[in-house]
Amino acid sequence: MSSTQSPLPPVRRVVTGHNSAGKSTVLMDKVQPARFYTPESVAPLYDLHYTSEFPAEIDTEISKGKWVDEIEEHPTIASDIGSTFRCWDMCPGDVSPLHRTVTLDYVIVAKGSVTLELEEGQRIILNEGDTVVQRGTMHTWRNETTEWARVYFVMLGAKPVEIDGRALAEEFRKAE
Length: 176
Known about the structure:
With 176 residues, the chain is mainly beta. The chain has one helix spanning 60-63, and strands at 12-18, 24-31, 45-51, 83-90, 98-100, 103-111, 113-118, 123-127, 131-135, 139-142, 149-157, 162-163, 166-167, 171-173. The strands form five sheets. The protein has a five-stranded antiparallel beta sheet, with no helix packed on it.
């Protein structure tokens, strides 16, 4: 894994909403702070939006008198009944754990190239502009190039896949 910080520009987050007259307004416009899975990680992760329910409550600035940004307090990797929007800058050599979330994920490779590897070894190389519809499968992400990659994820809570009456739950394993 690379020992340098991401050369990619920070992620700007703009959130819109409504004023008390029902007119469109900007609630937030800022560079989103990066977070890291481990203290030694150099690959930033940007949480961009999180909802804890579906349909999402999109009028808290009116109904509660202030905008509630669920990103600040969400305790899980992905919302099991709402949505999660995030961005991950993968450094050269970076590998995610082998994992499954109980979500329907829409994935867009915005920069670079990454490899999606499924649990039985099937590998799909994805390049800039490629997309994936990930349907609760066990997988890992790999950056096998010498360049940084940026990948966006929209994760929607889903019903678990059932095989012979057994639900496939969220699971994380060490990548090999």
